[in-house]
What we know:
This protein has 79 residues and is mainly alpha-helical. Helices cover 24% and strands 5% of the residues. It has a domain at 23-67. It contains two helices and two strands. The longest helix is centred in the middle third of the chain and has 13 residues, at 23-35. The radius of gyration is 18 Å and the shape is flat. The N and C termini lie far apart (39 Å). The mean pLDDT is 79.
Amino acid sequence: xxxxxxxxxxxxxxxxxxxxxxxxxxxxxxxxxxxxxxxxxxxxxxxxxxxxxxxxxxxxxxxxxxxxxxxxxxxxxxx
Length: 79
């Protein structure tokens, strides 16, 4: 807040970008998770949930987001 009590808005210095999806890389990561014992039915990709923090990094570098259950059923935030 400024001393006069008015809010000042400044444009962000950077724009948020969306990650670039690389299907072959995503498949490799999902297959490796399954090979490590994670049931395929429990693996969720980024399209199965809300937003993430991958934006600008995933736009510049190949990135994969996957989620799987690590806590007992009924735990808050568990997928």
